[in-house]
User: What shape does this take?
Amino acid sequence: MAELTYREAVAEAIAQEMERDENVVFLGEDIGKAGGVFKATVGLFDKFGPERVRDTPIAEQAILGAAMGAAMTGLRPVAEIMFSDFFAVCWDIVANQIAKTRYMTDGQVTMPLVIRTANGGGVRFGAQHSQAVENWAMMIPGLKVIAPSSPADVKGLLAASIRDEDPVIFFEQKSLYAEKGEVPDGEHIEELGTAKVVRPGDDAVIYALAAMVPRAVKAAERLQAEDGINVSVVDVRSLVPLDTQTIFDEFRKSGRAFTVEENPRLCGWGAEISSLITEECFWDMDLPVTRITTPHIPLPASDNLEDAALPSVDRIYNTVREGLD
Amino acid sequence: MAELTYREAVAEAIAQEMERDENVVFLGEDIGKAGGVFKATVGLFDKFGPERVRDTPIAEQAILGAAMGAAMTGLRPVAEIMFSDFFAVCWDIVANQIAKTRYMTDGQVTMPLVIRTANGGGVRFGAQHSQAVENWAMMIPGLKVIAPSSPADVKGLLAASIRDEDPVIFFEQKSLYAEKGEVPDGEHIEELGTAKVVRPGDDAVIYALAAMVPRAVKAAERLQAEDGINVSVVDVRSLVPLDTQTIFDEFRKSGRAFTVEENPRLCGWGAEISSLITEECFWDMDLPVTRITTPHIPLPASDNLEDAALPSVDRIYNTVREGLD
Amino acid sequence: MARKAAKSATKSRGASAKASSKAGAKTSTRSKSRLNDDIGEEKRLKMFQLQLEVRHLEKRAHDLFLQNLVKGTSHLAVGQEAIAAGCATAMRPNDYTFCTYRGHAHTMVRGAPMTAVLGELMGRECGLLKGKGGSMHLTSVEHGAMGSYAIIGAHLPIAAGAAWAAQYKKTGQVSFCFFGDGTTNIGAFHEALNMAAVWKLPVIFVCENNLYMEYTPIGDVTAVPNPAADRAAAYGLESILVDGNDADAVYRVAYAAAEKARSGGGPSLIEARTYRHFGHSRADPATYRPKKEVEEWLARDPIPMYRARLLEFGVKENVVSGIEESVLKAVDDATEAAKESPPPSMELLDTDVWADGGASWRN
Amino acid sequence: MARKAAKSATKSRGASAKASSKAGAKTSTRSKSRLNDDIGEEKRLKMFQLQLEVRHLEKRAHDLFLQNLVKGTSHLAVGQEAIAAGCATAMRPNDYTFCTYRGHAHTMVRGAPMTAVLGELMGRECGLLKGKGGSMHLTSVEHGAMGSYAIIGAHLPIAAGAAWAAQYKKTGQVSFCFFGDGTTNIGAFHEALNMAAVWKLPVIFVCENNLYMEYTPIGDVTAVPNPAADRAAAYGLESILVDGNDADAVYRVAYAAAEKARSGGGPSLIEARTYRHFGHSRADPATYRPKKEVEEWLARDPIPMYRARLLEFGVKENVVSGIEESVLKAVDDATEAAKESPPPSMELLDTDVWADGGASWRN
Ligand SMILES: Cc1ncc(C[n+]2csc(CCOP(=O)(O)OP(=O)(O)O)c2C)c(N)n1
Ligand SMILES: Cc1ncc(C[n+]2csc(CCOP(=O)(O)OP(=O)(O)O)c2C)c(N)n1
Ligand SMILES: [Mg+2]
Ligand SMILES: [Mg+2]
Assistant: This one.
């Protein structure tokens, strides 16, 4: 075990897979010589050279188009979209081409590629550089969707995504890049499609993703310490495939659930999980599932407004405490 | 009252508003001289001329950018995106620019524009020309989202959208363009943000949108005729603003609800309504809300496969009957 | 015969130019020298046959549409056959083709069986995509036909990506990408051209300028007269304009571009002027086009022109008409076979979203 | 003084060039004739002042960032001031400016008060956007500054749209759109240029070529040496390359382009070569740039060069230094005022999603 930052785990996972398989190539804006604007890919250019680590023009459609074309013809590209907000300039390649081609061609085409992107707010970048857009990807049939919350999961899930035969949208959390954690040495692979119970508990369950996981854990600790309430926290990690087994199992322990989402209110993954629980665990429900989300607004930039918009430890704590009252 | 087709109602609404206000302008691909690929804008070019009805290059970002810039500086543009699937090539202008600019500028900018688009499946066009993507728009704070199911609503809601000071994404249903219905003569305006109970009933309620409305009504009629079950059908019409009052009022009559969505399974508006009902009407719930959707797959092209994928009258009928058993 | 080199010498295309090769040997010396120039008789007969195959299959598709046996939409390339035939003949079997919804021609000329093409248009189980894709998405990976893309511009960067893989793996493959004049005005065109040029990718962008986007003349919406050729310089590329109704001319520029690409010289952008005889898609009577323009272009129909050239170069009438007959028969056979095929099995609905063959988004 | 013509003769910018105008009148005849050429003394003093305002405000922003008073990110235009100053001076008060995240300069030169600019960077209630937008989105509609856009390329079609409205309403307004060299490779650039050219819109696209996208040299990712100028022909436009470190030169091309646009001559694409003195954004030390290149460009700093020209043309030293002092004081005053402003009121969170002032998505 080594202690790595979340950003270091990104580079380590890519390096691990590039060493293993020379068909893995990596492309994006300023990802090579400069090591990425979030310094998440430092060292890869020096290690693997400009043929495998390619700096691109500012042309997201070309980046993802190139990744797709290469994936269809034998490579396993990893592409970076610098901020997840920029998916909006290349959404066609993601949602209409990459996601649909295997199905439309009756399986003639396989699409083993990964799109890494920096997602989420909390860094005062304003409404066009702070969005949490996991639900954009989750809505589109044909995409796998992963969002890790710890350095170990970054390494294990990113490596697994690169080995997967299907297209994976890999959301890295901007506000977590500097966070540290223990990461297994050597080859480390996690399984896509698995949620993780990061804190056990039987009074209620909180489902959280990415930056919301440490917040949910802190809120749960406070509920334990101040109110003697024992709340489980599930790191959803994989939105597609979705680990409904773990989600339902954990729910049935208490019949009370909360979701904590960074994305704006409407049509988030929280709504999906809430609906699924209602549909499939209705008779075990003790309380309605409560969604804690960013309000349905563009994200403001100033410290106090942004902090008020994103679900905070306080808000999670208060909502759960009041909900269980 | 005149009998008009759904497509004729589109042209009539635009003409009505262009006559009233010379700041209303209209742009898109082949919308002018050719009257639109769905013939929904026939006559406008002849009536209002090339200055106000502008044929554009195939350049969706330029089309919506032009609409936005013009809306910011005093015009009230109506833009057409030929198929809603093509939002993917201009999603940045929709989701990051048009939707967010008013909020980001603290209200300095107003954005009175309408984007009309042909949405949905059932016409054997395959996975890239058949998507129902209302949920793409509903997810984005700052967009109003309308999807009418009848010629009268097309006229009334499109006119209201053009008069609205905010950006409206107006989903026209491809498979309904040829449908006929009574449309009020003269000026006809409906109110955005209002759902409509199109069929009363107190054994259960079905929430439906666009092409799913007539299907839900047919299923309800069959439930009445064959099983004596009296099901209400609510045409949601306006996803943003959402008429939660009507939605909840209608729900509380029976405590049993079904949603019928054309979009793929995950994170649709059905999940949002299901979650809202659970959150706010939990103690009135007699049964879990059941979502009837297209499976989470790209839409196939052949008749039998596409028909099997989209929610059909049979599927609605069977699901509701079994659900109420 | 080059045809043979293609992975699948397709059975459903009965026509063979073998016999004709011998017949060609008997022509006069002068004609022979013209026939056996840089292109040669074998390739010429192949191009004639390919053009005919496209023409007759497309017309058949139109008939089937009128009989309500082809559903949804379809975009015919009748009138534009010389481009598909010329380029395919310049390709090696393992080169890649990326094309659009107007892609029946490009998919067929790589060797996709006629029955499978018609079957897909008709939504039958024998279809290339078993009915899951439809007419706008014909794909036959085994023949190098890497897909038909229905969103304008998307496949240009994708074709560049396939070229990138070929460059990286040093396979010598070239990626051909076909699109229309209207496509030159969308963003993806620009991004793909620039990146391909900077990375010196072995990709050949072929703009089929048929003078119209859907119903709007390309000149009404484009800042330059030649939508592709006048923009080549913006990517440091040579301006190439070719008569898209002359398969020989197309073959020559495509062959040269492919040679250049294979030798590391980077991409090319070719503009081929042509005309579609039908409307944009199934429902379009194309009344927006001036009568005189239509007449002039019909008079330049690539197939009679090419037929005349073959005869002029000394190919015997019976060889030419032999090809014509066999193509017609092949189209008839394919039509019957496709008609007999059942609709796709309902199990296909839930297959192949994922590489494991399934469609489940949950455990 | 042209400055005055702008809607808001901003109080927070104490500097005035009025006195200097008189001082200018005492210069020698030869200098005077150079000073009072097509540009003239008044405009030159204005351009000098604008450049200084940008320079000092940007440096102040940098200091405040180091003190952790500016949060998030910021993109300074230090070194590129001549472009903002030259273009703004060529504009009429009701012309439109559309710019990028690197837009403090372009917003200020239109007249946005310094306090409001700094306040926005600091996330204060006095900010131009009351802290809701942040440094990348400075907007001051009352001054014609129609927004700063943080997604590469997006504002090019939007600027074209504003020009369309001006054309439709026959107002004579011109829309100026500023962006970087890296932006010329994205799709929206291509779409906007083509549509603007076809519609002959009164929009002026100004590419500030500072030789780098973020950290990557523009030449590494672009197929032509001059990313904008070499592409003008692809839109039927004249190729215009100007020294972006010379406000006079920029003024002249911008003025000519605006005249052309106002008279129905359509859009222009101007490439102005320049250099940023700081890194791409707050966190970037810009170590990827060759030392020699940096030195050469620092030696061509637009502000000392312009100062020298003013003196050479006969403007008195005390006039020049008077402007310098008053600008510094104005920046100091604005800094203090912004620091004293409270953070935005929490009520702002839920306002102005919609035109009714609210944020509700339901009834
Ligand atoms: C992004 C996008 N916009 C619009 C369309 C609708 N559309 C389909 S074909 C077409 C015209 C294309 O013209 P061109 O590129 O010249 O090709 P052609 O059809 O003439 O072969 C249009 C506008 C589309 N499919 N995708
Ligand atoms: C669509 C998109 N892709 C990438 C980025 C990230 N990004 C911000 S600034 C920048 C470099 C822009 O370079 P240039 O256009 O030369 O402008 P400059 O910063 O030099 O003024 C990049 C890549 C973005 N904001 N939007
Ligand atoms: Mg065309
Ligand atoms: Mg730059």
Observations:
- Residues 212-227 of chain B form the longest helix (16 residues).
- The pocket of magnesium ion (ligand 4) is lined by residues D 180-182, 210, 212-213 (CB under 6 Å).
